[in-house]
Specification:
The structure holds 3 protein chains of 3 kinds. Chain A is mainly α. Helix content of chain A is about 75%, strand content about 0%. In chain C, a hairpin with a 2-residue loop joins strand 1 and strand 2. Classes of the chains: A mainly alpha, B alpha/beta, C mainly alpha.
């Protein structure tokens, strides 16, 4: 069972909450929060990709939808999570269903491209929202509140909430993948015709996966906006969708906890390499290439193979 | 005395690809709880016919009736829910799943919805039990946990049949189930197929003539998309036209 | 009316540029089943190498020729060092690895040439404009670009449909496994396809250099457009890439103008200013979605569904 691998991951992630870090606290907690948030986004993409075999190059669209959900409500003086969270989930669902339904008519690279197209539409639409900053983006007046309390206002509080949500999303994803639904989804990836011939409607199952993954990513987007206290069309850029794909593939698609590993690896690599040189991408690029050529199955597979 | 309602009824089925007519105004009734074999030379349109019954290919004209219900417009998965189950010529199993999970999926498909998100599917004893029974029937008991992708070709064929069984078929379409099987394996498969007729109706396309004549209650001979002859095996064997077109100079 | 003609010509010019990039992309995908995200940086390299070569040799023409050859060489090096390890691998792995190459090369040009945009002067003989219609002047260079693009397209069509190599390529695009088993030297064919694709993209970059700012990342958005082109045109089809490229070029230029005008007519001031440009940018994606809705495999798929 995967549980043994996930336990050390979460124990590690919980360390910043208990260890004293002095002046480094702010930096570590901020980095940790970003890892947790992108971990949630990667988990949601892994549902589509690893379990469902649906390669979406437009998943970042949901990050922008979640971020702008927070921004638009903030501009209207609404910051309570009791409103913001359902609104973000609803907006993500409203985008996922029609775009997913259209995209599922295509196969292979055409599916990849049409998901990209939809995220480009979100990107341009967000840039046209002059009331919310247009291309320059929108600065939040404050982080999301919860019934007049402000749990997200402090670095510790924010990190704790992000970590708790990551844990929740991880357990949810694992349950999903192991459920009847997950079994059907994983079966469709292997042989669509076979599953259809047994009486399961592949379209319905895959669309549901896209909807669930989209909502989880929307939640991550809302957290992203909170982390930076800023929403920008750049959240939907295709390079961001590419980043998410890297995290999932590098971590090991389909392994669930691999998504978290991938997110952590990418962010930590960027930080580490960034300290070496401002031109860190010149090192990062070849590292990616080598990782792909030599580490089949991603980080999650390394433990398995040994 | 009223005749039994046919399990499957094909009425005026027509299909062409460009200038090539693969199904030419075909009328056929398949009686319940029988084994009905469809034979014919290559290019006779057998697989295309199966595809039209299965629903992956729509006919240009005509209709398909199951248990007195017109299913011509129904998509594949809806037909499967009515009990129309098919095995494929190119063995189609889920390579990453275990044998048990392959068959449990079939049981899952036919028992309630797959939109359950929280309970682990591997813990559903009812599905596992149904899967074990089906696996035992085809002779794969004991290796439930092994991964399907690692099976031999013959093993995959057995698994394919187990999947079909667990799907509780009312009408089972088998596309060359004995293709490539050795003598022993063929004998075993024939034994399994013979017991099936008690529980469901079987339509099979086959080239193995010994198996066909041993198993079938009715044989339909297809040539160029049309039915050349249809009846009990003994009759077909004697039919001069059939012998000329299909059996040729053999027997 | 004159504005329409100018925009249409600009659209054709953009389309031909896109075709040069998309042709290599669709061949590599069709024949080798290889998703090469790094094709956009090939275009960028063409531009940078042109700037460098012209600076060294002092001649625009020589500079372009050298740039194209150098771009082809870089393409072959990439093929040998990275891509050939990825044939037959999952598309996802190819996406990941070529994404890494994008990062590497984008940063690489930043290190070598700096982040500031570079300029390349047009050759004197091609600068200026001339009247193509009474009362309408159009830049000579853009006309030259159109002519060059059409010549290359014709040459490519001649090679693809008229030579043995072209036949192998067409066969490979519809059934790669088959040609391998027929004894065609797959490795050599792949290298040829890759090299030609890299040179075409490099040529596009070199030609575009005097018109656009040469900067890191200039290939990224054109890469996306190129993928839109090959998806609309159908994977593996040169003819499809040509038709789709012209279509995309026209839609993006003409459509942009028309949508902004329509928004101005139908909506009030600020709403028009917001919706117009956003819709205009979305236009090609909407077209692609529409095409895929009706023809999920593109307009001229090499493998008809």
């Amino acid at each position: 069972m995967r549980l043994p691998t996930a336990v050390p991951i979460f124990l590690l992630l919980a360390l910043p909450l208990v260890l004293p870090m002095g002046t480094h606290a702010g930096y570590v907690l901020d980095l940790g929060a970003r890892i947790a948030i992108l971990g949630i986004a990667a988990l949601s993409l892994d549902l589509l990709l690893g379990a469902g075999g649906l390669v979406s190059f437009g998943h970042a669209a949901f990050l922008a939808i979640g971020a702008y959900g927070v921004a638009i409500l903030d501009a209207n003086a609404i910051t309570d999570a009791a409103v913001v969270v359902p609104a973000v989930l609803a907006a993500s669902l409203a985008f996922a269903i029609p775009t997913g339904a259209v995209a599922l008519r295509t196969r292979g690279v055409n599916f990849i491209m049409i998901t990209l197209a939809f995220s480009q539409m979100v990107y341009f639409a967000a840039g046209s929202l002059a009331d919310y900053g247009g291309d320059d983006g929108y600065t939040l007046s404050m982080r999301t509140t919860l019934f007049h309390a402000r749990p997200l206002a402090t670095p510790y509080g924010f990190y704790a909430v992000c970590l708790a949500l990551l844990l929740g999303c991880y357990l949810f994803s694992r349950a999903l993948v192991a459920s009847r639904f997950g079994r059907a989804l994983r079966a469709i990836r292997q042989d669509r015709q076979r599953v259809q011939g047994l009486g399961i409607n592949p379209f319905a199952i895959q669309l549901a996966a896209i909807a669930i993954g989209g909502m989880m990513a929307g939640l991550a987007g809302a957290l992203l906006a909170n982390a930076a206290e800023f929403a920008s069309p750049a959240y939907a850029a295709w390079q961001r969708s590419g980043d998410l794909l890297i995290m999932v593939i590098l971590g090991g698609a389909g392994s669930v906890h691999g998504a978290i590993l991938g997110a952590a690896a990418v962010l930590l690599a960027e930080e580490a390499l960034g300290n070496v040189t401002e031109h860190w991408r010149i090192l990062y690029g070849p590292l990616l290439v080598l990782a792909v050529i030599f580490f089949r199955g991603g980080l999650a597979a390394i433990g398995r193979r040994a | 005395m009223t005749a039994r309602q046919p399990k499957l009824s094909l009425r005026g089925l027509c299909k062409r690809y460009g200038a090539v007519v693969v199904t030419d105004d075909l009328w056929l009734d398949v009686l319940p709880n029988t084994i009905h074999a469809i034979i014919g030379p290559n290019g006779a349109g057998k697989t295309s016919l199966l595809n039209q019954i299965f629903g992956s290919v729509p006919p240009d004209a005509g209709s398909v009736w199951l248990d007195g219900q017109d299913i011509t417009r129904l998509p594949v998965h809806r037909r499967a829910r009515l009990g129309l189950i098919r095995s494929f010529q190119i063995v189609s199993i889920l390579p990453e799943f275990s044998l048990l999970e392959n068959v449990a999926l079939a049981a899952q498909a036919r028992s309630g919805s797959s939109f359950h998100f929280f309970r682990p599917a591997v813990g559903e004893t009812a599905l596992n039990e149904a899967a074990r029974i089906a696996l035992a029937k085809v002779g794969l008991a004991g290796s439930e946990a092994s991964i399907a992708g690692g099976l031999s070709h013959g093993g995959k064929r057995q698994l394919e049949l187990a999947i079909a069984l667990a799907a509780r078929p009312g009408l089972l379409l088998l596309d060359e189930p004995l293709a490539g099987a050795g003598v022993e394996e063929a004998a075993r498969l024939i034994g399994i197929l013979r017991t099936l007729a008690g529980e469901c109706t079987v339509v099979l396309v086959e080239h193995d003539m010994d198996a066909v004549f041993a198993l079938a209650d009715t044989v339909t001979v297809l040539a160029e998309g049309r039915i050349l002859a249809s009846g009990p095996p003994a009759e077909i064997r004697q039919d001069a036209a059939v012998r000329a077109v299909y059996l040729g100079d053999e027997c | 009316m004159t504005l329409l003609v100018i925009q249409a010509l600009n659209g054709v010019q953009l389309g031909l540029l896109l075709f040069l990039i998309a042709a290599g992309l669709t061949l590599v995908f069709g024949v080798m089943d290889f998703i090469n995200l790094a094709h956009g940086v090939q275009y960028m390299l063409g531009a940078y190498l042109a700037v460098a070569a012209v600076a060294i040799t002092g001649s625009f023409w020589l500079g372009v020729v050298l740039a194209v050859l150098a771009a082809g060489a870089v393409g072959l090096v990439l093929e040998w060092a990275v891509f050939r390890h990825l044939y037959g691998r999952d598309h996802l792995d190819q996406v990941l690895a070529t994404f890494g190459i994008i990062l590497f090369l984008n940063e690489g040009v930043r290190v070598i040439w700096g982040a500031a945009p570079l300029q390349l002067a047009m050759p004197a003989v091609l600068s200026g404009s001339f009247p193509i219609m009474p009362g309408l002047r159009y830049p000579v260079y853009r006309v030259a670009l159109i002519v060059a693009g059409l010549l290359v397209a014709a040459g490519l069509a001649a090679v693809i449909h008229g030579t043995r190599t072209g036949m192998r390529i067409r066969a490979g695009a519809s059934n790669p496994v088959m040609i391998a088993s027929l004894g065609v030297d797959i490795g050599r064919l792949f290298r040829q396809v890759f090299g030609v694709g890299a040179m075409l993209a490099g040529f596009a970059g070199a030609l575009a250099a005097p018109l656009v700012s040469v900067e890191p990342g200039m290939g990224d958005n054109l890469l996306i457009l190129a993928f839109v082109v090959i998806v609309i045109g159908g994977i593996g089809s040169i003819r499809g890439a040509f038709v789709a490229a012209i279509l995309v070029g026209l839609v993006d230029t003409l459509g942009r103008g028309m949508v902004t005008d329509a928004a101005g007519l139908l909506l009030q001031g600020t709403a028009a200013a917001r919706v117009g440009p956003a819709l205009a940018s979305m236009l090609i994606y909407l077209v692609m979605a529409a095409v895929l809705a009706v023809r999920p495999a593109g307009l001229f798929p090499a493998v008809p569904t």
